[in-house]
Amino acid sequence: MNSVLSTLRILEEVAARQPIGVSELARVTAMPKSSVQRCLVTLQQAGWLRIVDADRTRWGVTMKALTIGLRGTGEQDLRDLARPVIKRLSAETNETVHFSLRDGDDIIIIATEDSTHVVRVFMEVGSRVPLRASSAGVAILARLEPAEVESVLKHPVEDFGEPVPSAEELREEIASTARRGYALNGSAWFRPHVSSIGAAVTNASDRPIAGVTLAIPEMRYDPSQEKALARLTIAAAEEISELISSV
Question: Among the three residues 31, 61, 91, which one is the final residue of a domain in this structure?
Fold first, then answer.
């Protein structure tokens, strides 16, 4: 029984922290590296985990784990609702589009549509990003009550591995996002050389539960097109919101 519990613990930690290596997993779980490695191999053989960074041997969950998790919480239906919309937005702009669901202080990417350009923005389905480190997350924060925003900002971002804006910088950005109706990341947050536009998706109670992100390599981003791209991104988010409200 202990070995089963240890294996499940490793699966949970990889899902929460991916991509992650053996040493970090051993540290956060207080388990010997040899035990962690055995759990990882077992989960890999069962189809739950895979190596996502061969150079540094870092692990991530497979679509098997993601699909079961999505179905178990009803998120699979949400992804199915959003997919035609984000596919159309990607076709209209020929850029990558991410659809992310809020999970506490983070967002989890549950669907993507890639650009056809050789140089494009890529993030795996299942990637977890702090709300405060993404344009979709800031768009969601801009639709929350001030007390809830402060609750998010008071929690430090740990084990993310990339710089994030300070609480004061976030308050200013949230205010700007609320005024213009969309979040804008001009290659300043956690992914250098990536520009993105984010819009919040709401449920029937007008509460932000998800976000749409249009992600563009900085080298191809044209600031003069910001308003046009923002209109398309907002329209996609509003369409998904209407679909959710009508279910």
Answer: 61
Say what the pLDDT of residue 70 is: 47
pLDDT at 6: 86
- Cα angle at 181 between 175 and 183, to 5 degrees? 70
At 190 the pLDDT is: 55
192 shares its domain with 239: yes
Q: Is residue 67 part of a domain?
A: no
Query: What's the number of domains the chain is made of?
Result: 2
pTM of the model: 0.68
Report H helices in 142-192.
Answer: 146-153, 167-180
Q: For residues 197 and 230, is the Cβ–Cβ distance under 8 A? A: yes
Residue numbers of the domain that contains 205: 73-246
Q: Residue 6, CB half-sphere, CA atoms under 13 Å: how many?
A: 18
Contact (Cβ atoms closer than 8 angstroms) between residue 194 and residue 187: yes
Which residue's entry shows tokens 């191809």? 220
